[in-house]
TrEMBL record:
This is 2OG-Fe(II) oxygenase. Keywords: Dioxygenase, Iron, Metal-binding, Oxidoreductase, Vitamin C. Its cofactor is L-ascorbate. Residues 109-218 form the Fe2OG dioxygenase domain. Transmembrane segments: none annotated. GO terms for molecular function: dioxygenase activity; iron ion binding; L-ascorbic acid binding; oxidoreductase activity, acting on paired donors, with incorporation or reduction of molecular oxygen. It comes from the Bacteria. Gene3D superfamilies: q2cbj1_9rhob like domain.
Length: 224
């Protein structure tokens, strides 16, 4: 029996965002590219200071709820707590807009920034941030900006043991460091989803891990 490989959708729009953002980050003296041929990922140490991180951690503690996922019922897949960060809050807006400015992306394309808290034993198993366009949830995603292009994630504290962000197919493993921002392109150079962006929030062994994550869409997340 012959099996035909499903064609991969390329996209000039997503290709443009990959090229423009990576060029902008490469030209920024505060950022450093990861040593990987598999994905485009950049590091920005001390993107937030200690006071900014503390304010965001307090907001996460005050508003957290069990994290959710789009397409699995496995209760152990994502065991952290999350909260949506009010983008217009005076404690959130400067960070929210600074991330968009760093990447050179329209703030209207940015999803609501999400705060996440991992207690000992909590994890987020291997996943990609881009959406599978053959899944039942895809039509709903098309109504609020379409495919995700870039992800920005900031560690809000150091972690005593565990809690690394691991990209197994790209050969990258990043330990939490307060204020460190990671930014990566979820697409390949041709604008198709990059399977090698598969990543995992490794279980925390000791301490508590706090992060904020902001995803950007190819179109407007904020409608109207």
């Amino acid at each position: 029996m012959l099996f035909r490989k499903k064609p991969v959708r390329t996209s000039p729009v997503r290709q443009y965002y990959g090229e423009s953002v990576s060029a902008r980050l490469a030209a920024n003296p505060a950022t450093k590219p990861a040593k990987s041929d598999a994905i485009q990922l950049f590091y920005y140490p001390d993107f937030l200071n200690a006071a900014e991180c503390a304010r965001l951690r307090a907001m996460i503690d005050a508003n957290r709820r069990p994290s959710t996922v789009l397409s699995t019922a496995d209760p152990d897949y994502r065991t952290s707590d999350s909260c949506d960060m009010d983008r217009w809050s005076p404690d959130v807006r400067p960070t929210d807009e600074a991330i968009a400015g760093l990447l050179g992306l329209d703030p209207l394309h940015g999803e609501t920034m999400q705060g996440q808290r991992y207690a000992p034993g909590q994890q987020f198993r291997a996943h990609c941030d881009w959406f599978s366009e053959d899944q039942p949830y895809w039509p709903a995603m098309q109504q609020c900006g379409g495919q995700r292009t870039w992800t920005a994630m900031i560690y809000l504290n150091d972690v005593e043991e565990g809690g690394a962000t691991w990209f197994p197919l790209a050969g990258l493993r990043v330990n939490p460091k307060q204020g460190l921002l990671l930014a990566w392109n979820n697409m390949n150079p041709d604008g198709s989803p990059n399977d090698k962006t598969l990543h995992e929030g490794v279980a925390v062994m000791k301490g508590t891990k706090y992060i904020v994550t902001k995803w950007f869409r190819e179109g407007n997340w904020i409608q109207g």
